[in-house]
Structure formats: C-alpha cells, structure tokens
From TrEMBL:
Biological classification of the source: Bacteria, Bacillati, Bacillota, Bacilli, Lactobacillales
Top-level division of the source organism's lineage: Bacteria
GO MF terms held by the record: peptide deformylase activity
UniProt cross-references to Pfam families, sorted A to Z: Pep_deformylase (PF01327)
Coiled-coil intervals, chain numbering: none
Protein name: Peptide deformylase
Family according to the record: Belongs to the polypeptide deformylase family.
C-alpha cells in the first residue's frame, strides 16, 4: 500500500527499532511507496512512511532492493557531497564513503553481505542515517 511521506523532523529524528519477519507488510508498503515516487527518489527508509522499523529500499538494477536491518560493517574512501531528501526541503552537505560493505536481511530474511560503491553506497549510507534518526 502506498503510504504518505512523513516530513516531521521530530518524528524522523527518532531511532528505528530492529525489524522482524512480522514487519514484512511494512517492507511491502515501503516498496510500493518507493515505486510511486521513483521519478524523484532513489532510496527510502521506513520512517519516511511513518514506521520506525529498520527497513530501507534502494534503487537497484534489475529491481529495487529491500533491506531489513542493514548495517554498514566496512567503509573506505571518504568524500564530501550534498544530498536532498524526499522528506526535507533543500540539500545538505555531508561526508560519505565511496566503498561500503553492508550486511542485511533480504525479503526472505536470508542474511546477505554486499559490497557497494559510489551511488549505491551513497544511497545506503543516507538511508541507514534515516534509521538511526540522522537527517541529512
Ligand atoms: Zn532522506
């Protein structure tokens, strides 16, 4: 189900709790809402649809990638950039890493480890900030 986008910075500043198999509907809603905003959005976290669960989705080839409980376990090669956010107005400067390794659970709750670089890495870092209550 497509959910409205949350814009309240007080709400978005809260930390999300770990997701479980019981939160699959939240994951599906996140995917549906992401698809509806795909023209101007490359990633989304569950708190952006009002759910404080550690679930994110990123634009990925061949299809959007849903991640439950993503954790960045390695990062390298920092750079300065600025990012916009569907939940917030404007752009803000931030430091990101060109290479990351992320551990997460996929839609079937299988544990996966992925090495990502450049834009994919940047999106994951932005969305993981969201689940930690960090607004960029
Ligand atoms: Zn954002």
């Amino acid at each position: 189900m497509i959910r409205p986008i949350e814009h309240d910075p007080m709400f978005l500043a809260q930390k999300s709790s770990a997701a479980s198999k019981a939160d699959r509907q939240v994951g599906q809603d996140l995917l549906d809402t992401f698809q509806a905003h795909r023209q101007n959005c490359i990633g989304m976290a569950a708190n952006m649809i009002g759910q404080l669960k550690a679930i994110i989705v990123i634009d990925f080839v061949p299809q959007p990638l849903l991640m439950y409980n993503p954790q960045i376990i390695q990062h390298a090669d920092p750079y300065e950039t600025s990012e916009g956010c569907l939940s917030l107005e404007g752009k803000r400067p931030t430091t990101r890493f060109r290479q990351i390794t992320v551990v997460f659970y996929d839609q079937d709750f299988n544990k996966r480890i992925l090495k990502l670089s450049d834009l994919y890495a940047e999106i994951v870092q932005h969305e993981v900030d969201h689940i930690n209550g960090v607004l960029i």
